[in-house]
Write a structure and sequence with these properties.
The chain is of the alpha/beta class. It contains 21 helices and 55 strands.
């Protein structure tokens, strides 16, 4: 027996899931509805199938091909010009139907006993048998009345509530004799329920109804789509899956990793090649597709997640659908009944409200609250560059193909034949990305000097010495271990200006790449003496004799982020005893809590060994946390103050450069030494540029970002900072006879006092600009510092509060600084309320504006 699979439906009521997919190809338990129907036919020994197609026909043909992989033989019939209706499309293939055949809908889920239905048809000598089912609410379906012999007497297609006369409905599955098709006109639109069956009834042809037992669901709308999934998970319908049942009610695919701290409640299904992170909560009723990544602390309550979806840390999904290749970023919420269309993205801390639908390829900005369907408009390009370079999820945002295009875009802004250095940290992901960047650079005729695995301070120091147009460094992001950070330098080793970054973005998004001829393709040379170049400059800018004379003992913790470290070798040359901890490479990047545990261990080792100091090095050699001789950590603003104190003691009347949010301790210390303080925007590029362009700068940076020594190179350098500390500790002696070097603990004890606190508050991107304007307008101009964000000065108390928008997230940071702790606490409370109330007002105004626009589905 042959079967006709009606698979031409566009599924308008399933939009946006069917915007780029025909309804029979919508997945149930990660496999298309049509595949479940084909499996059902095969189980009942029906292996010759004719599929009638109309909407997006290639999707089904490309997936099933000739059907051989699914144990059947499929022939396709495409309605080219216009849909012919349920009966017209079958009439269109009448020449292939020369015996009893079965017609079945490609957009329903069922496990009916088709063999029993066929036997019923034959035993009753029926010309047309309708497979029927009892449903609680027949309004959506064709209602059928049969006599005591199951012969059909009456039916009505999709009645109103007042017309219902039975709960027995037409399921769209029919067993027919070929001669009934003679009643239909060729190449005209016609319908089984509206045209053919009433005509057969009128002509007195034997037509029967077979009431089937089992499960049946017409997946005609989104509620039914979700219910079909839940029924399948609860095994109310017999569907085949490709996944093993690892424990009762939990099906998991191959090559899927689930962290030991994640919880999965039955019933649930997780596809192949998935990665489920730490502490993820997957509640009963959840379906997860193939190739899905779910980051730490995400919470999933009964969502249907299609293939290739990416879910960020602490995201919440509630009985929603995330379609193919969509993305839900960190702390975003997608609430009950919402749909995120294929290839759409939901930004960090954004919210999709209940029953809201997002069409394919749309972008929800971070922090936005979407209360209505998003249908029109195109995907918004995000800026490539953030506060420091280009960053994104490793091998998800920052992929090899992305890196090739990015390298070509950067190279296209340079002259043909230019040279660029490329360096990276020691991790495999960074090697992959750097090689892809190199390929892109070469393709546009740019030559590469490959420094390979090199600490970023070394890379910056080398750039000015090798006559290159710029440099690229690739590393795991120092603050987000699942992200990659790509930084671009100019010919001096300084991060690129915003103007240069915009040119690269323009080339990238326009794909305005210069294509080199074969003979013009760039070359790669390997620089093997980068460490020697750095070491020479390193020694030249230190008082090596002072370091040798100190005979210091230093404990260095590399936090499993580097092997073959340079600094212990250099310190050894100067006579220092460098004890190295955790100097091996782990492919798992330690979390902040892991680093805190290691920092505590470092303190114990320093104290036990009676070392002069300890240091935890991070960010590929840029950042550090100190530990004094008693094992106590020195970090953040305290570290900034300590470094300023030591450097200005060594260089009185010098200039230090710090970000706008640094503590007022810096000014207090500078006054002690007749020094000068320059404050810049709170980003690395601004600090580098200020250190390079202003005279007499002896130190730049902060405890959070790292420290710059402009005479060495223009970037942050924790390695040089450690050596300089040892030098200054020996030179800044404690007693009047010049015999006893000061300790870090003693220097810390002599620092002045200030209370400095920071708080972060959610603020949508759309509200940031108006918030800043409102702050400026509501405070006297003479009390404002607009270097970065809005700083409000209280000269009476020698205090200030800073409202600083975050460059990469929907947040604003409040920073309060004063010698009066009570003032700091009260001011933070006051401005927290100020910002929260302002954001609520702005959100209410935005909701009113959107309602007036009136864009709905």
């Amino acid at each position: 027996m042959r079967a006709v699979l009606m698979a031409g439906g566009s599924g308008t009521r399933l939009r946006p899931l069917t915007c780029d997919l025909p309804k029979p190809m919508v997945p149930i338990l990660n496999r298309p509805i049509a595949q479940h129907i084909i499996n059902l036919l095969r189980r009942h020994h029906i292996t010759e199938i004719i599929a009638t197609l109309h909407y997006l026909p290639d999707a089904m043909r490309d997936y099933f091909q000739d059907g051989n992989d699914f144990g059947v033989q499929i022939t396709y019939a495409v309605e080219e010009d216009q849909p012919l209706g349920t009966a017209g499309c079958v009439k269109n293939v009448a020449e292939l139907l020369d015996e009893t055949f079965l017609v079945i809908s490609g957009d329903s889920i069922t496990d009916f006993d088709l063999t029993a239905a066929i036997e019923f048809h034959k035993s009753h000598h029926s010309k047309a048998t309708l497979v029927l089912a009892h449903v609680p609410n027949p309004v959506e379906f064709g209602v059928v009345i049969t006599d005591e012999n199951q012969r059909i007497k009456r039916f009505l297609e999709k009645p109103s509530s007042s017309e219902i006369f039975s709960d027995t409905v037409n399921t769209g599955t029919y067993i027919l004799e070929p001669e009934v098709l003679d009643y239909l006109p060729p190449e005209q639109e016609s319908d089984f329920s509206k045209d053919l069956f009433p005509l057969l009834l009128e002509k007195g042809e034997p037509m029967y109804g077979y009431v089937a037992k089992g499960y049946w669901c017409d997946v005609g709308h989104l509620d039914a789509y979700r219910e079909a999934h839940y029924a399948a998970l609860q095994q109310k319908v017999m569907l085949e899956t490709d996944y093993a049942e690892r424990s009762p009610g939990i099906w998991i695919g191959q090559n899927t990793y689930i962290d030991a701290t994640a919880t999965v409640d039955a019933p649930a299904l997780i596809g192949n090649n998935c990665r489920i992170g730490p502490r993820v909560q997957i509640e009963a009723g959840t379906v997860i597709g193939d190739n899905v990544t779910i980051s730490a602390d995400a919470d999933l309550k009964r969502p249907i997640v299609w293939n290739g979806v990416i879910i960020g840390e602490e995201a919440h999904l509630r009985a929603c659908v995330a379609a193919r290749g969509s993305r839900v970023d960190r702390r975003a919420h997608v609430l009950e009944g919402a749909i995120v269309g294929s290839l759409s993205s939901v930004g960090e801390e954004a919210q999709i409200s209940p029953n809201v639908r997002v069409w394919p390829s749309k972008k929800i900005e971070p922090g936005a609250i979407l209360n209505m369907n998003l249908i029109w408009g195109h995907a918004a390009y995000r800026n490539l560059f953030g506060q420091r370079g280009v960053s994104g999820l490793a091998n998800i945002d920052i992929t090899p193909e992305f890196a090739v295009r990015l390298g070509a875009a950067f190279g296209s802004t340079l002259k043909p034949g230019s040279y660029v250095t490329v360096s990276r940290d020691q991790r495999s992901i960074s090697r992959m990305v750097s090689r892809s960047l190199i390929a892109g650079l070469m393709s546009v005729g740019v030559n590469v000097q490959n420094l390979e695995a090199t600490a970023i301070p070394v890379a910056r120091a080398v750039v000015p010495t090798v006559s290159v147009a710029g440099g690229i460094h690739v590393r795991v992001h120092p603050e987000r271990s699942d992200h990659i950070l790509i930084e671009f330098f100019d010919h001096k080793g300084i991060n690129l200006s915003k103007g240069r970054e915009k040119k690269i973005e323009g080339a990238y998004f326009k794909e305005d790449f210069r294509r080199a001829q074969v003979q013009e393709i760039g070359n790669v040379v390997y620089i093997n003496n980068a460490t020697d170049i750095y070491s020479t400059s390193f020694e030249r800018h230190l008082n090596v004799e002072a370091i040798r004379h100190s005979k210091s003992k230093v404990v260095i913790d590399y936090v499993y982020a580097v092997s073959g470290a340079v600094l212990p070798i250099l310190l050894g040359k100067f006579g220092c005893d460098a004890v190295v901890l955790n100097a091996s490479l782990s492919q798992t990047v330690p979390s902040p809590s892991d680093r805190d545990v290691l920092l505590s261990q470092l303190g114990h080792v320093v104290e036990a060994l009676k070392a002069n100091l300890g240091v935890q090095v991070s960010a590929n050699g840029e950042q550090l946390i100190l530990v004094d001789e008693s094992g106590s950590p020195i970090r953040g603003e305290l570290l900034t103050a300590l470094m300023v104190q030591m450097i200005l003691t060594d260089h009185p009347r010098g200039t230090v450069v710090v970000p706008v949010n640094a503590s007022s301790l810096v000014e207090q210390i500078a006054r002690r030494h007749d020094g000068k303080v320059l404050r810049t925007k709170a980003n690395p590029t601004a600090l580098m540029e200020a250190c390079h362009t202003n005279p007499n700068v002896v130190l730049g940076g902060s405890g959070e970002m790292g420290f710059i020594f402009p005479q060495l190179h223009p970037g942050f350098d924790a390695m040089f900072c450690i050596a300089k500390l040892i030098e200054m500790l020996n030179l800044q002696e404690h007693d009047s006879f010049g015999h006893t070097p000061r300790t870090l603990g003693q220097i810390r004890a002599d620092l002045p006092y200030a209370c400095h606190r920071t708080m972060s508050i959610r603020c949508p991107w759309t509200a940031k600009g108006s918030l800043m304007r409102h702050l400026v307008e509501s405070h006297p101009a003479e009390s404002l510092d607009l270097t970065d964000g809005v700083k409000i000065l209280n000269r009476q108390h020698d205090s200030w509060v800073l409202v600083l928008p975050d460059a990469g997230e929907p947040l604003v940071h409040l920073v309060a600084d004063s010698s009066d702790r009570g003032w700091v606490d009260e001011t933070l409370r006051e401005y927290r309320v100020y910002v929260q109330e302002f954001v609520e007002r702005e959100q209410g105004m935005e909701d009113s504006r959107m309602e007036k626009v009136g864009i709905t589905s």
